[in-house]
Design goal:
The protein is an alpha/beta fold and 330 residues long. 42% of the residues lie in helices and 14% in strands. Helix 2 (22-36) crosses helix 9 (243-256) and helix 5 (139-148) packs across helix 7. Bound molecules: S-adenosylmethionine, 6-(5-methyl-2-OXO-imidazolidin-4-yl)-hexanoic acid (DTB) and iron/sulfur cluster.
Length: 330
């Protein structure tokens, strides 16, 4: 145990937390949140799809898989200058983390990867936390990203190891864990979470939370996505995720991983302000901002600003800026 942070949760304990009466669960999560974090602060991350569509994988939820007819236009890797322009806009709008996503199965050692490394250097120099999500990585590639100034790498487990094969057949759960290991070894922070609404059971959700919360070091951020049902994907007709399930998931994640950034990720476009307020109450302290996630709609900066005003929330300064401020004071 370290500062009350535990890595030895049992499935039974998580089961009991997840299944506790909803308001009691939210109350407990809010209490843990207050003890570990500034509850007024919400980290605002901006996502940019730097390479879109045409992906060889078969992830059943994903509009970017080449094998589904989803109407997503394939776009080759963007130019560095274009990406930096977006990053500057995001920074001006108050975002402190910039996350670049590519519809790749894995990173290959080629000119495209060199260009991504250049983008990472550029965004880092702008004073933002840089995050990438590029698919699978080996140790050397993770080290190169770290050298370029990468702050975080997003690589989701998506669901439980038991249910994984129902959703993706072109890679394994172990492949995912291996990449996460490579990222950790390179000293890059880990962003790893999942999706609810894939047709999984409550036990699958508990299983995924168990895997995340028993890692030797908790992921620094855990995105909880509600499935965005995209026409043309095998999951297009799944029922809409119930907000109470989202709240239950976020609250449980907060209790298990008290100091982690729990991100209310995909699905906000279909949530009301009061739905989102409940998620913040339950311990969410990070969002993706900007009109688009990777390919699907997200609330606008103006809508989010209005929500922050209403709820008395403020965007969190970047860890980098915080560190620099402390050094200046010393
Ligand atoms: N290709 C890389 C990979 O799979 O790791 C990076 C990009 S991929 C789009 C990043 C994550 O987006 C996925 O792991 C999944 O959790 C999430 N995602 C994709 N489509 C989604 C959808 N329709 N609804 C919710 N989350 C989704
Ligand atoms: C994460 O967990 N959610 C983001 C980010 N990491 C890369 C992606 C959500 C994608 C939603 C579907 C889309 O816009 O294409
Ligand atoms: Fe490709 Fe990532 Fe989408 Fe899977 S989630 S199809 S790997 S872009």
């Amino acid at each position: 145990m370290n500062n009350g942070i535990r890595n030895d949760w049992s499935i039974e304990e998580i089961h009991d937390i997840y299944n506790s009466p909803l308001l009691e669960l939210v109350y407990k999560a809010a209490t843990v949140h207050k003890a570990y974090n500034d509850t007024a602060e919400v980290q605002v991350c901006t996502l940019l799809s730097i390479k879109t569509g045409g992906c060889s994988e078969d992830c059943a939820y994903c509009p970017q898989a080449a094998r589904y007819n989803t109407g997503v236009n394939v776009q080759a890797l963007m130019k560095k200058d274009e990406v930096l322009e977006y990053a500057q806009k995001a920074k001006n709008a108050g975002s402190t983390r910039f996350c670049m996503g590519a519809a790749w199965r894995e990173v290959r050692d080629n000119k495209d990867f060199d260009r991504v490394l250049d983008m990472v250097r550029g965004v880092n120099e702008m004073g933002m936390e840089v995050c990438c999500t590029l698919g699978m990585l080996n140790e050397e590639q993770a080290a190169k990203l770290a050298d370029a100034g990468l702050y975080a790498y997003n690589h989701n487990l998506d669901t439980s190891s038991e249910y994984y094969g129902e959703i993706i057949t072109t890679r394994t759960y172990d492949d995912r864990l291996q990449t996460l290991d490579n990222v950790r070894k390179a000293g890059v922070t880990v962003c790893c979470g999942g999706i609810i609404g894939l047709g999984e059971t409550h036990e699958d959700r508990i299983g995924m939370l168990h895997t995340l919360s028993t890692m030797p070091q908790h992921p620094e951020s855990v995105p909880i996505n509600a499935l965005v049902r995209v026409k043309g994907t095998p999951l297009e007709n799944n029922p809409k995720v119930d907000i109470w399930d989202m709240v239950r998931m976020i609250a449980t994640a907060r209790i298990l991983m008290p100091a982690t950034m729990v991100r209310l990720s995909a699905g906000r476009a279909e949530m009301s302000t009061s739905d989102q307020a409940l998620c913040f109450m339950a311990g969410a302290n990070s969002i993706f901002a900007g009109e688009k996630l990777l390919t699907t709609p997200n609330p606008s900066f103006d809508e989010d600003n209005a929500m922050f005003q209403l709820l008395g929330l403020k965007p969190r300064v970047s860890f980098k800026a915080e560190k620099e401020r402390l050094m200046e004071m010393a």
